[in-house]
Design a protein that fits this description.
1 helix; 6-stranded antiparallel beta sheet; single chain; mainly beta; 3-stranded parallel beta sheet
Length: 225
């Protein structure tokens, strides 16, 4: 049975940053499908790994709305097996005075995710040996958070509040960057049941900078592949 939940802001805004709350229990799917509605150019789709196992706000992105913002979440996922729960918690809309100057997306393999850098985000480093294993290992110490952008001498890390989206995954080959990965392909090294990085919905016409690394796994730099 499909269940859809919708959050609607009580007023109109133009630009806003959207967050979804992940509770410490009941949020287990790695492909929660959020639809951001009322956006200029049509609705946007964001897929989120929700398995943080702690209360945390996750940014869904910055959007330009035509009026009243809405966010919808469905309990149906493409890789669903009816045993990984979806949780409906709070959604927050942070009105902005305009489009952020920098809207950054960090994509790619272990060189971007920060493999070896430690302090990994919990949804991306857990359950080794289980079907729910995830070893994308996204670290706040990874290089995308340390580079500078044109203009004021500020790191991407310092600009995170302006719209940094981070989807890199250790082990990702070029195919994991493509659109439309079939369910039979999920769960392999490089995505661990997350949607492909293109399909995750982090890229849009508003994106100003993409910082990727990809190709090392295709070249078999690791002889275990």
């Amino acid at each position: 049975m499909t269940i859809d939940g919708t959050w609607t802001l009580g007023r109109s805004v133009e630009w806003a940053r959207v967050f979804a709350r992940m509770p410490d229990t009941g949020a287990r799917t790695q492909q929660a499908h959020y639809v951001i509605e009322g956006v200029v150019g049509g609705e946007r789709h964001r897929y989120v790994n929700t398995h943080f196992s702690k209360d945390v706000w996750v940014e869904l992105g910055v959007y330009r709305f035509t009026g009243t913002p809405r966010v919808e979440l469905t309990n149906t996922t493409d890789d669903g097996t009816a045993d990984e729960d979806i949780a409906w918690d709070a959604v927050a809309f942070q009105p902005l005075s305009g489009k952020p100057k920098h809207m950054v997306v960090a994509m790619g393999d272990s060189y971007t995710s920060g493999e070896g850098a430690g302090a990994y985000s919990p949804e991306s480093d857990r359950d080794h040996g289980k079907s729910s294993w995830n070893a994308c290992r996204r670290s706040p110490n990874a290089w995308p958070g340390k580079v500078t952008v044109p203009g004021p001498a500020k790191s991407v890390d310092a600009l995170a509040a302006l719209g940094l989206q981070f989807t890199a995954c250790s082990g990702a080959a070029a195919g994991r960057m493509a659109e439309g990965c079939l369910p039979s392909g999920w769960g392999l090294d490089g995505d661990f049941h997350e949607r492909t990085q293109i399909d995750s919905g982090v890229l849009s016409v508003d994106t100003t900078l993409v910082v990727p690394t990809i190709g090392g796994n295709d070249a078999r730099f690791d002889n275990k592949i």
